[in-house]
Amino acid sequence: MRNTDDASELSQDTFIKLYTYDGDFFSDEHMKAWLIRVAINNCNNHFRNQKHISASPIPDDLPSDEEPEFDEIICEVMKLPEKYRIPIHLFYYEEYSISEIANILELPEATVKTRLKRGRDKLKKTLRKEDWL
Fold it and tell me: Per residue in 93-108, pLDDT tens?
């Protein structure tokens, strides 16, 4: 996670869940595994539920945000199925590597690459249909 405020909030949420957990742990390793799983789930939920696009450099060949097409392009990205939208967001807007995305989403790297390619292909098809490319 590149945003320290989000990382801090997610880690606080994880430890609050530990504090309010009613179950028993069999060992320190069991508690550690539970904490890791909760932290991963919190991160996955955060990215899944994230509704905004973070500020990041935009390629020169895309319309600027002052142009009406820009909002429509972002809207098309947000219309992509979740399995394509999340990897595209993490890769292009959050600037995570393929391996980092694979760890976050608990997917093989090959699956992340495939979803990025298919998501880009769907986006290109839509943008060409609207004469934006």
Answer: 778 899 988 988 899 9
Structure tokens at 91: 């890769």
Domain count, the chain: 2
Domain that holds residue 32: 4-49
CA distance 121 to 124: 5
Q: pTM for the full model?
A: 0.49
* Beta strand ranges found along 1-133 (DSSP E): none
Average pLDDT of span 26-34: 83
Asked whether the predicted pLDDT for residue 52 surpasses 80, the reply is: no
Same domain, yes or no: 87 and 116 = yes
Residues 100 and 73 in one domain: yes
Report the run of H or E that residue 6 belongs to, with start and end: helix 4-20
Inter-CA distances, 64 with 45, 68, 119, 128, 130, Å = 30, 9, 22, 18, 17
